[in-house]
Design brief:
Helix content is 34%, strand content 27%. It has 271 residues and is an alpha/beta fold. Strands 3-2-1-4-5-6 form a six-stranded parallel β-sheet, sandwiched between helices. A five-stranded mixed β-sheet has the order 8-9-7-10-11. Strands 12-13 form a two-stranded antiparallel sheet. It contains ten helices and 13 strands.
Length: 271
């Protein structure tokens, strides 16, 4: 399989390392794409001896069969529809971008028309198989609390506008509480899991999101509650963050690897 990767962060690095060890089958990275020549993906590509591509046209010229987005909401908007329209499957890790109904409709439409696959992995949570099964029976309520150490919420415009001093929190502090529709756009690198939960379940407008900074935490800790006709599901995830990027849980990266491993599999267990 010919793979393209968008982004030069921890997830891209993890993919390249696993590929180099032969742990992802017969796959070849034909391009690692970045926005400019100054992208941090360029030295990563050089280290792993894969071609570095700047922009959509250069990525298309590499003729990938599947592209893994591991960059940003902007990357989903810039690359997604064009890739899917050309029959190139697209694995989206910045699922929060699909909170935009019009964008999601375009990507879904392009995938249906070209028969390419639009795939949004579970990311830093699980239980989506149970959620989808519960939705068939009927679900009334879905909520997720995304709680992380204060460092994970730094350099976010919405948090800075709140005037919260993340360095001096006395205890757990709620940064946002409302619908996923309202909250996801405020935290583009932190709450993509809430978007995936919404899309797998009862939608952005009915899924409730709470965002919390907790100075007592060392792990990114998420709580999910699902209530419906089939019963109540309560889930808790304590995820180790990447040391160099506390906004991203290691589980999210490994979720992408697991998604890729089963991409062409004829045998699947769970989701």
């Amino acid at each position: 399989m010919r793979i393209g990767i968008i982004g030069g962060g921890e997830i891209a690095r993890l993919f390249l390392e696993h590929l180099a060890r032969g742990e992802l089958g017969e796959a070849t990275v034909v391009a690692l794409a970045g926005r400019t020549d100054a992208s941090r993906g360029k030295p990563l590509a050089a280290k792993h001896r894969v071609p570095f591509a700047i922009g959509l046209d250069a990525l298309l010229a590499a003729r990938p069969e599947v592209v893994i987005e591991a960059a940003s909401h902007d990357a989903v908007r810039e690359y997604g529809e064009a890739l899917l329209a050309r029959g190139i499957s697209f694995i989206v890790l910045s699922g929060g971008a699909l909170c935009d109904d019009a964008l999601r409709a375009r990507l879904e439409g392009a995938a249906v028309k070209s028969k390419a696959v639009l795939y949004v992995p579970s990311g830093g949570i699980g239980g989506l198989d149970a959620l989808k099964a519960a939705c068939v029976a009927g679900v009334d309520h879905v909520e997720i609390a995304v709680t992380k150490p204060p460092a994970a919420w730094k350099d976010i415009a919405y948090v800075e506008a709140l005037g919260v001093d993340l360095e001096r929190l006395a205890g757990p502090t709620v940064l946002f509480e409302g619908t996923a529709r309202e909250g996801v756009p405020h935290f583009p690198a932190n709450v993509n899991i809430a978007a995936v939960l919404s899309m797998a379940g009862i939608g952005f407008d009915r899924t409730q999101l709470k965002v919390v900074a907790d100075p007592a935490l060392k792990l990114n800790t998420h709580y999910i509650t699902i209530r419906g006709n089939s019963g109540t599901i309560t889930l808790k995830f304590e995820s180790v963050p990447f040391p160099d990027n506390p906004k991203t849980a290691m589980l999210a990266a490994y979720s992408a690897l697991a998604a890729f491993k089963q991409f062409n599999s004829r045998v699947r267990y769970g989701t």
